[in-house]
Design a protein that fits this description.
By secondary structure, this protein is α/β, with parallel strands linked by helices. The protein folds into two domains: 88 residues, PDZ domain (Pdz3 Domain); 195 residues, 2-enoyl-CoA Hydratase, Chain A, domain 1 (Alpha-Beta Complex), CATH 3.90.226. 25% of the residues lie in helices and 28% in strands. Strands 1, 3, 15, 16, 17, 20 and 21 form a seven-stranded mixed beta sheet that branches. It has a six-stranded mixed beta sheet with strand order 12-13-14-18-19-22, sandwiched between helices. A four-stranded antiparallel beta sheet has the order 8-7-9-10. Helix 6 packs parallel to helix 7 and helix 7 runs parallel beside helix 8. The protein is flat and about 70 Å long. The two termini are 33 Å apart.
Length: 404
């Protein structure tokens, strides 16, 4: 999504994705759905909806209200009805990215953006036999503190057998509010049966992971463009420069997007100051142009970007900007295709409106909405490869960089 905050979300670029990672965080919450926002509009172009009246005539709405009040056989509260009206106004746009959030929904949305969840802090996958398996407990978090170990097989969750249970279903059963408990029956070393009752806690995961691959290739994975992304990406760039890496893999697979500002800063690690990253348009009018900020310490280092159908919004902005400015080669599968920008407007009660304010265009002039970005080299990961942990897309990137 591409967010620009009215107080916060620069350009929300989150897409709607189904995550196809083998490892899924236990505490995962809602699915990401769109992008980030501008908070204060940097331009004053009139809205295309400017022909609407200054206020709505609520007479017919009140007729529906009176009819519900007099005839509905069930419980309703005033806040329910008001929230329904607000949700309905946003839904009337028929734009999937324009959404009203109640205060709790707004809190959940922002937590999702910043990888903040309530859960136990572990990664979950499936072994070769389809059993639910702990990939890795995260150091210092509830699962690790309780004694959960990598390769533990989860037999039951709160007494419910995991036989035939999907990873997503297990995630939903294991996550929950801070302070509540979840009981896991596990099998260790395929022999020892153990039981763990774990108290859930608030967990925030870093949005950037890095390592040095064989052949002195730097690897940076961005899972979402969040508040911590710029600082962590800069640290990765400093590490790569110090190591004098031969090439870089930027892994944007299953990255649903996030903050536009973060995408601009990340792109600026490769692009010299002033190079275009994207244009924002309302109709045919360019209302804003985002350019590289300088500090391009990774400029000239061969770079392969991994994308797939889960790469959306801010990740598509970054991939498109680096590709169109001849700074990166794209490998994987066609991206999601979200080419619009939202703004987050905050209200006094903690609620928010996420509203589409513009379309964004790549440096080459393309808008990728509903079209996505086609990689230079299409590489799929078969079901058999996924099950065996064989990352053919990453292998293709390493091969490409080894020959540069």
């Amino acid at each position: 999504m591409s967010l620009k905050p009215k107080v916060g979300w620069r350009g929300l670029l989150l897409g709607i994705l189904g995550v196809v990672l083998l490892a899924v965080v236990f505490m995962l919450g809602l699915n990401f759905g769109d992008g980030r926002l501008h908070v204060n509009l940097p331009w004053t172009t009139k809205s295309v909806a400017g022909n609407l009246p200054n206020s709505l005539n609520y007479a017919t709405v009140n007729q529906i209200y009176q009819s519900l009040k007099e005839n509905y056989d069930g419980q309703l509260t005033e806040s329910q009805l008001l929230d329904g009206l607000k949700h309905g106004l946003a839904t009337a746009t028929k734009d999937p990215y324009t959404v009203y959030f109640t205060p709790q929904e707004a809190k959940d949305f922002n937590n999702q953006l910043n990888n903040s969840f309530s859960g136990i802090g572990a990664q979950l996958g499936q072994d070769s036999d389809g059993n639910l398996e702990v990939i890795a407990p995260i150091d210092g978090l509830p699962a690790a503190k309780a004694g959960i170990k990598a390769q533990d097989l989860i037999a039951t969750i709160n007494g419910t057998s995991t036989s035939g249970m999907s990873v997503d279903d297990a995630v939903n059963r294991i996550r929950g509010p801070k302070g509540t408990k979840v009981t896991l029956q596990v099998v260790r070393d395929k022999a020892q049966a153990l039981s763990f009752t774990i108290t859930r806690d608030d967990i925030t995961l870093p949005s950037v992971k890095t390592k040095i691959l064989p052949g002195n290739i730097g690897y940076i994975q961005i899972t979402t463009f969040a508040d911590d992304t710029v600082g962590l990406a800069q640290k990765a760039a400093d590490q790569f420069k110090q190591a004098n890496v031969k090439g870089i893999v930027l892994d944007l697979r299953d990255d649903p997007g996030g903050l536009l500002d973060a995408a601009v800063h990340v792109s600026s690690l490769w692009l010299p100051q002033g190079q275009k990253i994207l244009d924002e348009k309302r109709g045919t009018t360019v209302v804003d142009t985002n350019s590289a900020l300088g500090g391009d310490e990774l400029h000239g280092i061969p770079t392969a970007i991994l994308i797939n159908g889960g790469s959306a919004s801010a990740s598509e902005i970054t991939a498109g900007a680096l590709h169109d400015n001849h700074a990166a080669y794209l490998i994987g599968q066609k991206s999601y295709g979200k080419g619009v920008v939202q703004q987050l407007i905050n209200f006094g009660d903690g609620s928010q409106l996420k509203v589409t304010i513009a379309s964004w265009y790549r440096p080459d002039g393309q808008n990728i909405n509903h079209r996505g970005i086609t990689p230079d080299q299409t590489v799929k990961i078969s079901d058999a490869d996924a099950k065996a942990g064989n990352d053919t897309q990453l292998q293709a990137a390493e091969t490409y960089l080894a020959n540069k």
